[in-house]
């Protein structure tokens, strides 16, 4: 990445604070600004320079939008301060979670950690394919720094999992939520859909031929369901209930699904993503409210996410105090 253009901003320092009249004024250098300590976690310092390094790709986009002197633009200045506040909060939170993971002995052994890092790295590389290097460059990563980042994220995940490990949702919680929010579960006509997505029409035809010859759709679905994580096709996905008028789905896909009978498997359906073999079950021909049993898993996920979010927020605030986290947002406007 190209270096972000530097900006000169006024900052006044002195041993004592006087009125401006007759007082010696010293303009803080860019180097001094970048060395300003804006947070501490257990005595470990985070400088403004550390924060700005995290925001290099953000600044590059802002430079393209506002020009090379973007830091002098009033709107850009506001965005810079907000971006710094968000980045600093993330950096402090990460340091606190890593510290807690170490204290609680949640960090895997070096061998296990290296294995997990390499697996995540390879998964990311496979997922991005030929765009991998460009994506790393855009975010300012080298392979080494990306692996360091992934290592920290793995450790953070261990602390997060620990913080929310006791979350439990009862059947009564689910029932109460359902009764209070029935209308939000209202669905248009549609069906539960699974599909196998092939890259080419010939591949899709081969899959359909196997099904027509007696191989079950479910067997092939199981065979292909892990391919997506590995970045290869065919892939198999359970899409859950999909309304026939769903705006976020390819129209050709929906057209191919809406004429299927219960349990029927489609011929290859071409969409902008490739060629689909679709299976439809639980077909609903009109608008309806799903039963409690049909909504149970969805409600459980909603409530789990709500409780996890609240619990994690409170736990992080407690841990920040325990790790003596100090943040000086007032020093970010430089």
Tell me the layout of helices and strands.
Layout: H1 30-34, E1 37-41, E2 44-47, H2 48-54, H3 56-66, H4 74-103, H5 110-128, H6 132-138, H7 143-163, H8 171-180, E3 190-198, H9 201-212, H10 217-224, E4 235-243, H11 251-258, E5 269-271, E6 274-284, H12 292-322, E7 326-327
Antiparallel strand pairs: 1-2, 1-7, 3-4, 3-6, 5-6
Helix pairs in contact: 2-4, 4-7, 5-7, 8-12
Uncertain spans, ≥5 residues at pLDDT below 50? Answer: 1-26
Determine the strand fraction and express it as a percent band.
Answer: 5-15%
Number of strands: 7
Rg for CA atoms: 27 Å
CATH topology of the domain at 187-284: Chitinase A, domain 3
CATH architecture of the domain at 187-284: Roll
Mean pLDDT: 88
Give me the number of helical elements.
12
Output the structural class: alpha+beta
Summarize the biggest pleated sheet. Answer: 4 strands, antiparallel
Terminal CA distance reads: 23 Å
Describe the protein in words.
It is a single chain. The protein has 334 residues and is α+β, with helices and mostly antiparallel strands. Among the domains are: 110-164, no CATH class; 171-183 and 290-322; 187-284, Chitinase A, domain 3 (Roll). It has helices at 30-34, 48-54, 56-66, 74-103, 110-128, 132-138, 143-163, 171-180, 201-212, 217-224, 251-258, 292-322; strands spanning 37-41, 44-47, 190-198, 235-243, 269-271, 274-284, 326-327. A 4-stranded antiparallel beta sheet has the order 4-3-6-5, with helices on both faces. A 3-stranded antiparallel beta sheet has the order 2-1-7. Helix 2 crosses helix 4. The chain starts with 29 loop residues before the first helix and ends in a 7-residue tail after the last strand. Mean pLDDT is 88; it is low at 1-26.
């Amino acid at each position: 990445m190209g270096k972000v253009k530097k900006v000169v901003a006024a900052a006044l320092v002195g041993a004592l604070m006087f009125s401006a009249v007759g007082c010696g004024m010293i303009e803080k250098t860019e180097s001094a600004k970048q060395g300003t300590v804006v947070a501490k976690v257990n005595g470990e310092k985070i400088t403004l320079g550390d924060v700005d390094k995290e925001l290099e790709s953000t600044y590059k986009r802002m430079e393209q939008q506002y020009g090379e002197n973007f830091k002098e633009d009033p709107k850009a200045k506001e965005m810079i301060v907000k971006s710094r506040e968000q980045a600093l909060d993330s950096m402090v939170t990460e340091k606190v979670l890593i510290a807690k993971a170490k204290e609680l002995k949640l960090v895997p052994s070096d061998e296990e950690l290296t294995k997990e890092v390499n697996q995540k790295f390879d998964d990311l590389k496979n997922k991005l394919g030929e765009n991998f290097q460009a994506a790393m460059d855009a975010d300012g990563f080298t392979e080494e720094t990306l692996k360091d980042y992934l290592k920290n994220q793995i450790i953070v995940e261990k602390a997060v999992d620990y913080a929310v490990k006791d979350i439990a949702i009862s059947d009564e919680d689910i029932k109460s939520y359902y009764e209070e929010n029935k209308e939000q579960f209202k669905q248009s006509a549609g069906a539960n859909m699974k599909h196998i997505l092939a890259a080419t029409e010939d591949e899709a035809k081969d899959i359909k031929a196997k099904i027509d010859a007696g191989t079950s759709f479910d067997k092939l679905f199981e065979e292909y369901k892990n391919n997506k994580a590995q970045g290869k096709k065919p892939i198999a996905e359970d899409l859950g209930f999909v309304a026939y008028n769903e705006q976020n789905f390819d129209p050709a896909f929906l057209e191919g699904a809406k004429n299927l009978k219960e349990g029927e498997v489609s011929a290859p359906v071409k969409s902008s993503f490739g060629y689909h073999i679709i299976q439809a079950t639980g077909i609903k021909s009109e608008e309806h409210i799903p039963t409690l049993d049909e909504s149970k898993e969805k409600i459980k996920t909603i409530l789990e996410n709500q409780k996890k979010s609240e619990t994690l927020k409170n736990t992080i605030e407690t841990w920040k105090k325990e790790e003596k986290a100090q943040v000086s947002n007032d020093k970010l406007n430089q």
